[in-house]
Inverse folding.
């Protein structure tokens, strides 16, 4: 039950973030992109991917990563990319407060900062370049 609550909150928060990131601008020039995301050779089961125009024009967009795959629409041109990957982890030694509140799990971000908040990942999106796969290493 707690695990479902944690996942529900995580999905809700990611959806709100993606909705806000996708607001503004026009989608008529957007290009459908998709791909796979792996960390240490394994698919990222749950996470997010964001595309931010490097030149400041165009729309920031993002998508959820599910079972190592994503699909979204992105403005053409060079994009900065941020990727997160999360796991739900059982608390081995919960505090008394966590026990009293029924908290037995926490969400853990396992993809290193060099791929998200400190990311230097870049891709060029064009009508002839619509598949972008990412094989992330520690």
């Amino acid at each position: 039950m707690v695990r479902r609550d944690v996942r529900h909150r995580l999905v809700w928060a990611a959806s709100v973030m993606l909705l806000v990131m996708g607001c503004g601008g026009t989608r008529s020039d957007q290009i459908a992109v998709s791909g796979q995301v792996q960390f240490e050779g394994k698919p990222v089961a749950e996470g997010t991917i964001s595309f931010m125009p490097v030149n400041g024009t165009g729309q920031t967009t993002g998508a959820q990563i599910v079972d190592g795959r994503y699909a979204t629409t992105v403005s053409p041109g060079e994009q900065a990319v941020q990727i997160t990957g999360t796991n739900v982890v059982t608390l081995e030694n919960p505090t008394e407060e966590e026990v009293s509140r029924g908290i037995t799990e926490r969400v853990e971000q396992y993809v290193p900062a060099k791929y998200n908040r400190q990311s230097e990942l870049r891709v060029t999106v064009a009508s002839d370049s619509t598949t972008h796969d990412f094989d992330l290493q520690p």
